[in-house]
Amino acid sequence: MQIDVRRFSTRCELDDALADRLEQAIRAAATQSGGGPPVIMLSGGHTPLPAYREVARRRPPQGSPLTVIYSDDRYVPADSDASNYHATRPFLDALALPEARVLRIKTELPLEEAARDYEGRLRTLLDAGARIGLALLGLGPDGHTASLFLPKHLLQSRGRLAIAVQRPDGMQGISVTPDFLANVSEPLFVVAGSGKHDAIASFIRQDPNLIALRAVAGHARVEIWLDRAAEQQPPRM
User: Fold this and answer.
1) Would residue 42 count as lying in a domain?
2) How far apart are CA 184 and CA 135, in angstroms?
3) Does residue 57 have a pLDDT over 70?
C-alpha cells in the first residue's frame, strides 16, 4: 500500500485544505456525467467539524446530485450533540440536499435493525453503480477508525457493509466495514490534536495489527493529513 502523508504546520492550514478538498468533491459531483450517483463519505468526531463549517460559510453551489453518507455514528438520537449526523447539519443545510440523498443512520430504530437498514441503503447505492469518491476517516489514539475499535469488530464485519458495535467507551455505534470501504476511491484520514503520535507512527509504518490500516487493507493508496500537534511525541513523565 502507498501511504501519502501531507503535513500542515497549523490546525488552521489543515482545516482550510480540508474545506478546499470537500469543495472540489462537491463541484466534481455537479459536473459528473454518466455512471452512478456521486457520493462522499463524512467522518465524525471533532477533527473535521471546522472544515464542514467553513464549507457552509463559503456557500457551496446548491442543486448538486451529490449523496452524503457517514462512516459511522453513535447510537444516540439524531438531534443529540453526540450525533455525527447532527454535527454536520450546517454542511448539509448549505448544500440543501434532498432528504433522500443524505443517508443518515436511523438511530430511532433498534440498534441491530438500524445497522441492517443502513447496510441495505448502502447496498442499494452500490447496486446503482454509485461512485464513492472522497471518503473521510479519522484515526483515534488507540488506532481505531470509524467505529471499528477491536479485532472482533473486523471479524464481525466480514461479508457486511455496516455493523452495530459495542464501543469501548460504553456507548453503542454503527459503522461501515472494510468490505464497504473497499468501494471508495479516495480514502482520506484526517488527524489533528494531541495524543495520536503512536497511532500515526504505526499507520505510516504500516503496522499490520493497526485496526485503521486493516480497515483499508484493500486499497493500493490512501492519504493521511496531519497537523503538527498530532505527530508530537508526548512528554515523558
Assistant:
1) no
2) 7
3) yes
Torsions phi, psi of 167, nearest 5?
-80, 150
Q: Are 147 and 181 in contact (CB under 8 A)?
A: no
The distance in angstroms from the start CA to the end CA of the chain is 35
102-116 pLDDT, tens digit each: 999 999 999 999 999
| Residue pair 132/185 in contact by the 8 Å Cβ criterion | yes
* φ, ψ of residue 12 in degrees (nearest 5): -60, -40
Alpha helices by DSSP H, 3-71: 11-31, 49-57
Nine cell digits for residue 108: 430511532
Mean pLDDT of the chain: 93
Domain span including residue 140: 2-32+47-227
Neighbours of 28 (CB within 10 A): 16
Checking if the pLDDT of 143 tops 80, the result is yes
The CATH number of whichever domain residue 205 belongs to comes to: 3.40.50.1360
Total domains, the chain:
1
